Amino acid sequence: MTHPDSHALRAEGLRLGYDGRTVVDGLDLAVPDARITAIVGPNGSGKSTLLRGLARLIVPQSGRVSLDGRDVRSYGAREFARRVAVLPQQPVAPDGVLVSELVARGRHPHRGWFGGRSSDDDRIVAEALAATGTAELAARPVAELSGGQRQRVWIAMVLAQRAGIVLLDEPTSFLDAAHQLELLDLLTESNREHGTTVVMVLHELNLAARYADHLVVVDGGRIRAAGHPAEVMTADTVAEAFGLECLVTQDPVAGSPLVVPIGRYHRGASDLG
């Protein structure tokens, strides 16, 4: 039986930075298990740095990130990869690799030291390609794909990894509006059907509010607000964190908060109530 906190991911007193400069400062975060968490914030706020810290791509200056109560740095690479799948903001594919080969790399953590691909591996890779609409690209070199196609292939690799936790840094980059929704629907299905814990940095506030169960607003390397989107995504929070005057209403489709920017030109042009 799986313990309900089997994928508990936490940051405690986390301080992260680069070249002696602190970007995330003394941050505490408990990632809800088997839920979708979206991290938002203005440019330079530290949201991507926070995700990199959770993914153990950055060594903390102080504090720690723990998984199942253990410091993430105590895990071996394969053991950690079986539990946590990571998609950075600008992943780089090996030269000459084909789409099918890249997606199959998601299965590497689950193989024995001398084991080849199993029929289960092949099935999971095929399912990931089909789910992301990239099956017809399987025999093509990744380098020949458009930015949007490449992004969907990387998502397929993450899905093929079948990890309990998925960390994604701006996964909707390079995708048009239709594929952004399709990607977020895929992640939601993985969460609902398999209990996958999803943590993603998103740029678009309304998509974050629509798809997240838990919303984290990062500003100045600290968490300004965290909780259910209906509680967090307020006009005051958006103004304080993003410097954006807005009206927050209800998304007519999802019922989630909908941020409507005002801007200088339209300020006072209509009665905003």
Note down, in words, how this protein is organized:
The protein has helices spanning 47-54, 77-83, 99-104, 119-131, 147-161, 177-194, 205-211, 229-232, 235-242, 263-266; strands spanning 9-18, 21-31, 36-40, 62-67, 70-71, 84-87, 165-169, 197-201, 214-219, 222-227, 246-250, 257-261. The chain is 33% helix and 26% strand. α4 runs antiparallel to α5. The strands form 3 sheets. A 6-stranded mixed beta sheet has the order 6-7-8-3-9-10, sandwiched between helices. Residues 1-6 have low confidence and may be disordered. The protein has 10 helices and 12 strands. The radius of gyration is 19 Å and the shape is globular. It has a single domain (9-266), classed as Rossmann fold. The chain has 273 residues and is α/β, with parallel strands linked by helices. The longest helix is centred in the last third of the chain and has 18 residues, at 177-194. This is ABC transporter ATP-binding protein. It holds the Pfam family ABC_tran. It is found in: Cell membrane.
